[in-house]
Specification:
Strand 1, helix 1 and strand 2 form a beta-alpha-beta unit. The protein is an alpha/beta fold and about 180 residues long. The protein is built from 4 helices and 11 strands; from the N terminus they run βαβββββαβαββαββ. The N terminus is likely disordered. The strands form 5 sheets. It has a 3-stranded parallel sheet, with helices on one face. The protein has a two-stranded parallel sheet with strand order 1-2. A two-stranded antiparallel ribbon has the order 3-6. Helix 2 runs parallel beside helix 3. Helices cover about 20% and strands about 25% of the residues.
């Protein structure tokens, strides 16, 4: 059974993990709702944004009625951002290593914000990095298996990993898996 830290926010699943004894502590982040204003863009080559400029059939004119061909469109969009989980993971990872309570670590994240603590920890204990996203591993989380303490490894989760590792339909006789899971 794995006893560890989980920085995640979600009801039934967290209760099931807690009642099954799979997690020792929960540390939560929080969500912040914001409005961001940015130039309107489309996805260009290699997934990079390309700023949209005025072009037919949607043109921009100045106060005199003259065309402004290089005008940029600005858009405001609602954004919901998760805040705090990466800081919690980084803080606990560093505290656990520096106080000597762990002799190896597994970090399930592809967040490049964790690059400094992961690099620091890699010098002291073996670390496994599990990428839970479909994308490639963040370049800032790269490393070599033999650097620092050595025995480091990397893995990308696949849909079959999730299918093979579900909690049972009922945990501790009290928490039931929702329909469709």
């Amino acid at each position: 059974m794995f006893g560890g830290l989980l920085a995640y926010n979600g009801g039934v699943y967290l209760r099931a993990l807690q009642r099954s004894g799979s997690v020792d502590h929960f540390f939560y982040g929080n969500y912040v709702n914001r409005v961001a204003t940015s130039p309107l863009a489309t996805i260009g080559p290699h997934g990079r944004p390309v700023i949209t400029h005025a072009d037919w059939p949607l043109m921009v004119q100045d106060a005199t009625g003259a065309d402004v061909p290089d005008a940029r469109y600005m858009a405001s969009v609602a954004r919901r951002e998760e805040k705090g989980s990466d800081v919690n993971v980084a803080s606990h990872l560093l505290i656990d290593v520096l106080t000597g309570v762990i002799d190896a670590a597994i970090v399930i994240s592809n967040d490049s914000d964790l690059s400094y603590p992961v690099t620091f920890v890699r010098q002291r204990v073996p670390i496994g990095l599990v990428n839970p996203t479909r994308g490639v591993r963040s370049g800032r989380l790269q490393g070599l298996p033999h650097e620092g303490a050595g025995n480091h490894w990397w893995y990308r989760l696949t849909p079959s990993d999730f299918a093979r590792n579900q909690l049972p339909p009922t945990v501790a006789g009290k928490v039931h898996r929702p329909q469709g899971w």
